[in-house]
Design a protein that fits this description.
Shape: globular
Oligomer: single chain
Helix content: 25-40%
Bound molecules: phosphoenolpyruvate
CATH architecture: Alpha-Beta Barrel
Largest sheet: 8 strands, parallel, barrel
Number of strands: 8
Number of helices: 11
CATH superfamily: Aldolase class I
Radius of gyration: 17 Å
Structural class: alpha/beta
Length: 260
């Protein structure tokens, strides 16, 4: 049974002080939530402070991005090695804001996936279509390319340290959520794809989480879908009460036996 994974992406928000206040509140509110993995991705500058607070909790801290090379003349970049050194256990890679604003392509994202895996951290690979691609019936082709290229040369053993975040771009930060049926269809497609590329076991074990305006009032219907294993939460992760309510979602029946 896959353990749900609820990740907060704080994006470019919060001073170190504000991040510390938020994470203290979250540690308190989430102290009893042991049946999901809880992950937080603060801004780079807040990572060490947040990681220090989380060290005495079950909450894991990660980066929102990283550079593929471990070190060198790459002004302004932060490597997977440095993330690990700062206390990170995962990194979000290929977020649509990185793809769209910073023009990251699948080959570059694939190099980051390898860099994160080499550090023994969890790589959360984000995939998702624009509204135009969905309306032009290109949805599955887009997802297929992003998965195949993003995971190029990642072997079955390494897939134990990979999670996929399906985030339809038109649903991110817009208040629009894919219907749980629409999201479930894409999650099932991704699982089927991974079955074909890897094996039934990899497909069964990998966590495929949903992102796009997840809120306390829509988490239950999303998590009721068999192939949705958690959420990547942007806006709502900045409010302790909302993120705690999302992480504390009522367990649907098919998760009743998930790892405690
Ligand atoms: C995200 O940043 O990955 C995201 C899904 O944002 P939001 O929840 O605000 O739509």
């Amino acid at each position: 049974m896959r353990k749900p994974l609820i990740a907060g992406n704080w994006k470019l928000h919060h001073s170190i002080d504000e991040a510390q206040t938020l994470v203290h509140e979250l540690c308190e509110k989430l102290a009893d939530v042991r049946n999901s993995d809880i992950l937080l991705a603060p801004s780079f500058t807040s990572i060490p402070a947040v990681a220090q607070i989380c060290a005495s909790s079950h909450i894991k801290v990660g980066g929102q991005n990283c550079y593929p090379e471990p070190q060198g003349a790459f002004t302004g970049e932060v490597s997977a090695l440095q993330l690990k050194d700062a206390g990170c256990e995962f990194a979000i890679l290929g977020h649509s804001e990185r793809r769209q604003i910073f023009k990251e392509d699948d080959t570059f994202i694939n190099a980051k996936v390898h860099a994160v895996l080499e550090q023994g951290m969890l790589a959360i690979l984000c995939v998702g279509e624009t509204l135009e691609q969905r309306e032009n019936d290109e949805l599955f082709e887009v997802i297929n390319n992003q998965i195949q290229l993003g995971l190029h040369n990642v072997n079955a053993e390494q897939m134990e340290n990979v999670a996929i975040a399906y985030e339809p771009i038109w649903a991110i930060g817009t208040g629009k959520t894919a219907s749980s049926d629409d999201a479930a269809e894409v999650h099932a497609y991704i699982r089927g794809l991974l079955h074909g590329v890897y094996s039934a076991q990899v497909a069964q074990n990998i966590r495929i989480i949903y992102g796009g305006s997840v809120k306390p009032d829509n988490i239950s219907s999303l998590m009721a879908q068999a192939d949705i294993d958690g959420a990547l939460v942007g806006g709502a992760s900045l409010k302790a009460a909302d993120f705690a309510a999302i992480a504390n979602f009522p367990r649907p029946l098919h998760m009743a036996s998930a790892n405690p």
